[in-house]
Amino acid sequence: MEPSSPSGDIDARSHGPVRTCVGCRRQASRSVLVRLALDGDRVVVDERKELPGRGAWLHPDSDCLALALRRSSIGRALRSPGADASGVALPGHASTETATSAIEVKG
């Protein structure tokens, strides 16, 4: 039996690329996480995971999003500290933020 990763989410050797969630900081398979990217100065959800530039990876969970927003880790991961991520809405989740005009889902 092969040991699993320290986070317990996946075994990196058998599940492809591994990324770290900017919210909870746990590792997971790329296919499980949502990719966030910059479109100009706006943070957008990159559903196809193919927009150019740096990406930030996040579990599709409102708790992880709240942690990432509280820690300002999305802007740091994208190397754009001034990026406004307060209006990010995860696919399949209703956004509780009022800045929905700053959000766009690409894909």
Description:
With 107 residues, the protein is of the alpha+beta class. The chain contains two helices and six strands, in the order E-E-E-E-E-H-H-E. It has helices at residues 62-71, 73-77; strands at residues 18-20, 27-29, 34-39, 42-46, 56-58, 105-106. The chain has a four-stranded mixed β-sheet, with helices on one face. A two-stranded antiparallel ribbon has the order 1-2. Strand 3 (34-39) and strand 4 form a beta hairpin. The longest helix has 10 residues, at 62-71. The model is unreliable at 95-104 (pLDDT under 50).
How would the blueprint of this fold be written?
Elements: E1 18-20, E2 27-29, E3 34-39, E4 42-46, E5 56-58, H1 62-71, H2 73-77, E6 105-106
Parallel strand pairs: 4-6
Antiparallel strand pairs: 1-2, 3-4, 3-5
Quick summary:
The chain is of the alpha+beta class and 107 residues long. The protein is built from two helices and six strands.
- Kindly report the average pLDDT value: 79
Radius of gyration (CA) equals 14 Å
DSSP summary: helix tally: 2
Total strand segments: 6
Sheet with the most strands? 4 strands, mixed
Q: Determine the N-to-C terminus distance.
A: 39 Å
**What's the arrangement of strands in the largest beta sheet?**
5-3-4-6
- Portion in beta strands: 15-25%
